[in-house]
Write a structure and sequence with these properties.
The complex is a heterodimer of chains A (452) and B (523). With 452 residues, chain A is an alpha/beta fold. In chain A, 37% of the residues lie in helices and 12% in strands. Chain A contains 14 helices and 13 strands. Chain A has helices at 8-18, 49-60, 84-90, 93-96, 108-125, 137-152, 165-178, 195-201, 224-232, 318-321, 334-370, 395-404, 413-416, 437-451, and strands at residues 129-130, 156-159, 181-183, 206-212, 236-241, 260-264, 280-284, 297-301, 307-311, 377-378, 386-390, 411-412, 426-430. Chain A is globular. Chain B is globular. The relative contact order of chain B is 0.12. Chain B has helices spanning 15-18, 37-40, 76-87, 110-116, 119-122, 134-151, 163-180, 197-204, 222-228, 251-260, 339-345, 360-396, 427-436, 464-483, 502-507, 516-522; strands at 155-157, 187-191, 208-212, 233-239, 264-268, 288-290, 311-313, 325-328, 334-337, 414-416, 443-444, 454-456. In chain B, α8 (197-204) links the parallel β2 (187-191) and β3. Chain B has a seven-stranded mixed sheet with strand order 1-7-6-5-4-2-3, with helices on both faces. In chain B, strands 10-12-11 form a three-stranded antiparallel sheet. In chain B, strands 8-9 form a two-stranded antiparallel sheet. In chain B, α4 packs antiparallel against α12 and α13 (427-436) crosses α14. The chains are: A alpha/beta (452), B alpha/beta (523). Chains A and B meet through α1, α2, α3, α4 and α5 of A and α3, α4, α5, α6 and α7 of B.
């Protein structure tokens, strides 16, 4: 077995030093009735590297890969081109096979990277500080709601109907157990968001308002009105960003008064991977830092006065505070944070702005092209790289029909909001830099065909 | 010890070499200092070539970002060098022995990385129509079947994103099961030796946490536990093998007692590596257990994640597990059960824990590892992991206090305390001394039940020669700490940094980089 270095001779010698006759002597504390006397029945034995690889190749071929077809899915996970050097860096063993930097003297690589990541995230989201990452956007969103509760000592959260339905779903699961009440609603297929509903609902009991930017239908709205009203009532504004590339083109939520900004960092540096692992972004105003969940990296000096980095403010965390911790999170998403940070460093200000501009322009052209198809209407007045179409037919079967034509043509609102009649003709279409003119044309032609 | 390794080679360092010769750059040959990207990059540089944006009328609702973000860029060669230099400031499994107790820092096979990067897995979207992702769903299902059979449990929830998320999943399933029968039990019992995530997860779901005392042997006190059970106790969270490195002999009796009193048994599966293929938790009466794929099943730790924490569930708790999950039909076709069909297929689910289907990238890796080992190899994994830990325990118990050495063989980790060190010397000094010897230290000051705990987990992927050298090194460092060798107090001497001032970091937190003038102004 190729991963096991001990030889039979080693094992015998070691048992001798331990004073055991056989390996079974080391398992004496396991009651006999719970001991298996051999390999578990019905499971295959070990396999060669080649055999395992072949099995995976066979399974991989059964999937339609985004890079092999015209591809337009978004809804919280985006396909962007990731530079080859990003994957090279994250596969360096010193990053890949290290762990949480508990011994900072020999983990400065990870710690400095996290400090750079925190700074990049804080700046991108327009906040004072950011943490070292969460599992993903949806869990970061719930953690933000929990944090707002700790800051305001209130339990009523108002969620915009433009928030990703899966994020709402996660929050609902958690709120059942924490006693928070969530004010939620379904979106309408309209250019207008539900900010009037949110404004009307904010009162002195409100802990936070949660709004996605751009929202699930792709709409972009100035959230400063919401933050002003929330602050009037002592509530916090939480902004959720599921496509951070957008922030290369549009104002940061923090700059419009959001108190906590969370996000899904997947679209920068991390591939689609069928939904995970991704990387949750979490940033806030400095005054709330001691209520933040998750790991934080901070600057300090060593015994010789040299600059160095450590994990800090750990008195918030479970390994110190146990049942009184701000979150139960331990392992976060370090390697995906590295991928995000490397990609962001390669982009830089210039690259991110260029990328955002390109995404938007391609999306505008695509929207113009698709709305030439009879019966297809654009729902949005505003959007970044993703917009909602109103089709003359139910969108979900259309997506399947497009897949039969080898086109991965967006996410239907029927998939996101099953059983909601008013939304079933909606189709979310995302357009990034990977989409070619030929892809657009292929999609437009195929869509017209399947609608006919 | 003369035989530091099998070849007999020993690093030599003459007195002359130790002199600190100042260099112009501050670098020392391969020890290279590296500034922050904010100090070397700038707004005008990019390492990415993009197509020109076509001219269009913007539809951004007049919300264009109108001031600099402050994101410095580097060209590709500069970026590769920056991160390569940073990487060399890290200790890692690929570099050497990493006996971090409770973390199972075993070798991370590169085959795992290769299969995870196949386009059919790495490049599929979580919301593609299910007919276009049958291979991905097959991977999830195949891994699920392995996990169920290896643990002897009834079902498995695949979506939890890491161990602590898995604990939360198990706790929510318990809460949902209690609610389904209209039971308002509010207490979860947790041993003092538990990981901090256990009480934190229980508290999240509104349970109050009470400690279970341990015996002098380092195991759960069954009588005390039984005495505390009652109509207010929702369940227990027990780590088995426990964090003292011991198997909970009474586990089945604990489970039976908890069940008889109407509660549920959660098992923290962080230490599953010790028993995989030899013991099935399902045979011990466990209702829920998370499995850290990044521990037992070799997916990379990545400097702090991503992890993955599927939760195996008993027949009693399976109906309450989270959405979504995959279903295999008789014809081999896979479907997803999400909110849409949950009412019919999984009506008692407590709901969704994360946006999509869990850590697919970790599932591929873990399945590749499991298939590589197979049922026979996984059993050997547990045996070698336990053998290696006992070898360390018995080779060092004469020089380091091993508080539970009398309690029988350890499982996959050996626990020592700071008892017997010279006045003023602590576990921390031993850890830092090990850094100078070229090792990542063991887990220190955990579990809390032992003073100055040192928890050594060698894993099965270490050779006898590696263990022998480590035993020699730890023996030497322990002897120095017992003899009061003051040079140990200032260790590490040879790491990229000396001891770091954690107090200052927490008192005046600097969590992001600011331009020097801004930093001054902020003070």
């Amino acid at each position: 077995m190729r991963y096991l270095p001990l030889t039979h001779t080693d094992r015998q010698a070691m048992l001798g030093i331990i004073g055991a006759k056989t390996i079974d002597d080391l398992f004496v504390d396991v009651p006999a009735e719970a001991q298996l006397d051999g390999p578990i029945h019905g499971l295959p034995n070990h396999a060669s590297e080649m055999a395992v690889e072949r099995h995976f190749s066979d399974l991989a071929r059964k999937n339609m890969a985004a890079s092999h077809h015209p591809f337009f899915l978004g809804a919280g996970a985006y396909k962007h081109h990731v530079p080859a050097s990003v994957d090279h860096i994250i596969q360096r063993g010193e990053f890949l096979t290290a762990y949480t930097p508990y011994q900072p003297e020999i983990a400065q690589g990870t710690l400095q990277m996290l400090f750079e990541f925190q700074t990049q995230v804080a700046r991108l989201l327009g906040c004072d500080v950011a943490n070292a990452s969460m599992y993903d956007g949806s869990t970061a969103c719930w953690e933000a709601i929990g944090m707002a509760g700790r800051v305001t000592k209130r339990t009523k959260a108002i969620l915009s109907s433009g928030l990703h339905p899966h994020y709402i779903s996660v929050a609902k699961t958690m709120a059942k157990y924490t006693g928070d009440t969530l004010d939620t609603a379904l979106p309408e297929l309209s250019a207008k968001t539900d900010s009037e509903r949110l404004l009307a609902a904010i009162d002195d009991e409100t802990s936070c308002v949660v709004v996605q930017y751009p929202d699930i239908l792709g709409r972009i709205e100035d959230i400063s009105v919401l933050s002003a009203k929330a602050h009037e009532h002592g509530a916090l504004l939480i902004a959720v960003v599921t496509e951070p590339v957008a922030l290369g083109a549009i104002k940061a939520p923090g700059d419009m008064g959001a108190d906590i900004v969370v996000g899904e960092g997947q679209s920068i540096g991390v591939g689609l991977q069928f939904g995970g692992p991704y990387v949750g972004l979490f940033a806030c105003k400095e005054k709330f830092v001691r209520q933040m969940p998750g790991r934080l990296c901070g600057e300090t000096v060593d015994a010789e006065g040299k600059r160095g980095f450590v994990l800090t403010l750990s008195t918030r965390e479970q390994h110190i505070r146990r049942e009184k911790a701000t979150s139960n999170i331990c392992t976060n998403s370090g390697l995906c944070a590295l991928a995000f940070s490397v990609h962001m460093t390669l982009l830089g200000e210039k690259g991110l702005r260029g990328l955002a501009s390109l995404n938007h322009a391609l999306a505008v052209q695509m929207a113009d092209r698709l709305t030439q198809i009879p019966g297809v209407e654009l729902v949005n007045d505003s959007f970044f790289n993703e917009f909602t179409l109103h089709l003359p037919k139910e969108a979900r079967p259309i997506v399947r029909a497009l897949a039969d034509k080898k086109i991965l043509g967006g996410v239907s609102l029927g998939r996101l909001y099953p059983g909601v009649d008013a939304l079933k003709n909606g189709l979310l279409v995302a357009v990034t830099e990977v989409v070619t003119t030929e892809d657009v044309e292929a999609f437009a032609v195929a869509l017209q065909e399947v609608l006919a | 010890m003369s035989a530091l390794n099998q070849s007999g080679w020993k690093p030599e360092m003459t007195e002359e070499c130790r002199h600190d010769v100042k260099t112009y750059t501050g670098n020392k040959a391969l020890m290279l200092e590296e500034p922050l990207i904010f100090e070397i990059g700038n707004n005008a540089t990019t390492g990415v070539d993009l197509a020109e944006s076509p001219e269009v009328a913007l539809r951004l609702n007049n919300l264009e970002r109108n001031r600099d973000i402050g994101l410095p860029g580097l060209s590709e060669p500069e970026a590769v060098r920056h991160y390569t230099r940073l990487s060399r400031q890290n200790y890692a499994i690929d570099l050497g022995f990493f006996p971090l107790g409770s973390c199972t820092m075993k070798h991370n096979p590169r085959l795992n990385e290769k299969v995870a990067r196949m386009a059919g897995f790495a490049d599929v979207h979580p919301m593609q129509p299910v007919e276009t992702v049958q291979g991905a769903l097959a991977v999830i299902n195949e891994l699920a079947v392995w996990l169920i059979k290896l643990t002897g449990m009834h079902g498995v929830a695949m979506t939890p994103k890491a161990g602590a998320h898995g604990e939360l999943c198990g706790i929510l399933a318990i809460k949902a099961a209690l609610e389904a029968r209209g039971d308002e039990r509010r207490v979860i019992l947790v041993p003092e030796s538990a990981h901090g995530t256990n009480p934190a997860s229980a508290a999240f779901a509104g349970f109050s946490v009470e400690n279970i005392p341990a015996t002098s042997e380092g195991r759960v006190n069954l009588d005390a536990l039984k005495a505390r059970l009652g109509p207010d106790v929702a369940g227990v969270m027990i780590t088995n093998p426990n964090t003292c490195g011991l198997f909970e002999r009474d586990m089945k009796a604990i489970s039976d007692a908890v069940h008889a009193a109407g509660g549920y048994v959660y098992c923290d599966g962080a230490n599953f590596n010790a028993i995989v293929g030899r013991v099935r938790p399902g045979d011990l009466g466990i209702d829920a257990m998370h499995i850290n794929l990044h521990k037992t099943f070799s997916t990379p730790h990545g400097g702090g994640g991503p992890g993955s924490g599927p939760v195996v569930l008993s027949e009693a708790l399976s109906p309450y597990g989270p959405l979504p999950f995959t279903e295999r039909h008789v014809d081999g076709y896979y479907t997803l059960v999400e909110e849409e069909t949950a009412g019919e297929r999984h009506p008692h689910s407590f709901g969704r824990m994360t946006a999509f289907h869990g850590q697919m990238g970790m599932f591929t890796r873990a399945l590749a590892y499991i298939m590589s080992h197979g049922a026979d190899g996984l059993r050997q994994v547990a045996e070698d992991a336990v053998l290696n830990a006992n070898y360390i325990l018995r080779s060092l118990e004469d020089v380091l206090d091993a508080p539970f050495a009398h309690s029988g063989p350890c499982m996959h980790e050996a626990l020592f305390s700071d008892d017997g060190l010279a006045e003023g010397f602590s576990t921390l000094d031993i850890a830092k001394g090990l850094i100078d010897e070229g090792y990542h230290p063991m887990t220190v000051y955990f579990p809390l039940v032992v003073h100055g705990a040192m928890l050594v987990e060698p894993t099965e992927t270490e050779s006898k020669a590696t263990l022998d050298q480590f035993i020699g090194a730890l023996r030497s460092v322990a002897q120095r700490a017992k003899a009061g060798d003051t040079s140990l107090k200032s260790a590490p001497h040879y790491a990229p940094r000396r001891r770091l001032d954690e107090t200052q970091a927490a008192r005046k937190p600097v969590l992001v980089w600011r331009e020097p003038e801004q930093a001054v102004a902020a003070e």
